[in-house]
């Protein structure tokens, strides 16, 4: 049975707190394990979450600020130590190549050849990824070069059992119909996929970290089933958001609403806010977005919403 869930490893911004570790997010998507922005403490948080280095198939860095990248050396060294056999692609902004090289070889260790660098560059969409999970990167608006990511499952089909029965399509013929788009029924008549199935949109997750409000953030989140987005500040600190290249909770809600996202996950919370302000993050985001909202906490497991029918 496939599992699609976001495992939250850390939810603080620049400074960790007793209840919020530095950033870290692990997306389990069927056979894929995508680690986003491994900040300090990622190895420990993964262990607490029951995750291992062998679960990681891809690492995505939005940018090279320390709270998003200083856990990378330990993560790579753990991949080497545990003798992970499969390739692990690492996507990062190409303009930060010097930081990638420093982090990749931060200390001596018995290296591994499974790490596959995959830098992204440019001002347009950068398509990446496997055939069953398309990954796209878009530049955001931060104080250093930063990219957001969109993971999308290709659209598929939902078979209609009553229509299959009506056309006499059973057993192996169902698989053949799905694969090639048509079959000849036992009585000889042609059956097209559209006769027995309805289009089913693929699931999509958007990951938008450090950025001021910008059109690219909305584009990444367009019709996403889940938008994971930074919400560093509350309204009272809105004057800090744009100069530092960050969002408020209200602005994060606005991005979700304008994009038509289905669910919203707020994270990257400034260390200035204690637990008694959590409700304010939810309320201010809800003033703009009327869908389900989660204020992420360390070690949360947040399932992707069911596929649209």
TrEMBL record:
According to the lineage, what is the superkingdom? Bacteria
Q: Where is the active site?
A: 67 (proton acceptor)
Domain Metallo-beta-lactamase: start-end pairs: 19-116, 189-269
How is the cofactor bound, as the UniProt entry phrases it? Binds 2 Zn(2+) ions.
Molecular function in Gene Ontology: 3'-tRNA processing endoribonuclease activity
Cofactor(s), names only, from the UniProt record: Zn(2+)
Q: One Pfam family this chain carries? A: Lactamase_B
Its UniProt entry gives the catalysed reaction(s) as:
Endonucleolytic cleavage of RNA, removing extra 3' nucleotides from tRNA precursor, generating 3' termini of tRNAs. A 3'-hydroxy group is left at the tRNA terminus and a 5'-phosphoryl group is left at the trailer molecule
- Residues annotated as binding Zn(2+) 1 are 63, 65, 142, 210
Note the InterPro entries from the entry. Metallo-B-lactamas, RibonucZ/Hydroxyglut_hydro, RNase_Z/BN
For this UniProt record, the keywords arranged alphabetically read as follows:
Endonuclease, Hydrolase, Metal-binding, Nuclease, tRNA processing, Zinc
- Residues the record lists as binding Zn(2+) 2: 67-68, 210, 268
Enzyme Commission number(s): 3.1.26.11
Name the protein family.
Belongs to the RNase Z family.
Checking HAMAP family in the record gives: RNase_Z_BN
PANTHER family noted in UniProt: ZINC PHOSPHODIESTERASE ELAC PROTEIN 1
SUBUNIT field: Homodimer.
> Can you name this protein?
Ribonuclease Z
Q: Provide the organism lineage as a comma list.
A: Bacteria, Bacillati, Actinomycetota, Actinomycetes, Streptosporangiales
């Amino acid at each position: 049975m496939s599992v699609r869930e976001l495992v939250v490893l850390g939810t603080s911004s620049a400074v960790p707190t007793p209840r919020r570790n530095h950033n870290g997010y692990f997306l389990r998507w069927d056979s894929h394990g995508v680690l986003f922005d491994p900040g300090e403490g990622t190895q420990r948080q993964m262990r607490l979450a029951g995750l291992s280095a062998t679960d990681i198939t891809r690492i995505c860095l939005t940018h090279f600020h320390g709270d998003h990248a200083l856990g990378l050396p330990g993560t790579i060294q753990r991949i080497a130590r545990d003798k992970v056999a499969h390739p692990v692609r690492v996507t990062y902004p190409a303009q930060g190549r010097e930081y990638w090289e420093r982090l990749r070889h931060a200390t001596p260790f018995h290296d591994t050849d499974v790490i596959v660098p995959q830098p992204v560059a440019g001002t347009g969409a950068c398509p990446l990824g496997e055939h069953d999970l398309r990954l796209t990167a878009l530049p955001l608006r931060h104080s250093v070069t930063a990219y957001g990511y969109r993971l999308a499952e290709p659209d598929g089909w939902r078979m209609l059992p009553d229509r299959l029965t009506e056309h006499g399509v059973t057993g192996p013929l169902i698989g053949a119909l799905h694969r090639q788009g048509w079959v000849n029924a036992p009585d000889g008549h042609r059956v097209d996929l559209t006769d027995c199935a309805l289009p089913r949109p693929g699931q999509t997750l958007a990951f938008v970290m450090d950025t001021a409000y910008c059109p690219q953030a909305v584009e990444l989140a367009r019709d996403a089933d889940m938008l994971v987005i930074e919400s560093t500040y509350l309204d009272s600190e809105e004057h800090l958001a744009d100069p530092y290249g960050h969002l408020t909770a209200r602005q994060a809600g606005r991005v979700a609403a304008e994009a038509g996202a289905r669910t919203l996950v707020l994270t990257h919370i400034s260390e200035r806010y204690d637990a008694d302000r959590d409700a304010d993050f939810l309320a201010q985001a809800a003033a703009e977005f009327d869908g389900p909202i989660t204020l992420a906490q360390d070690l949360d497991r947040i399932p992707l919403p069911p596929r649209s029918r």
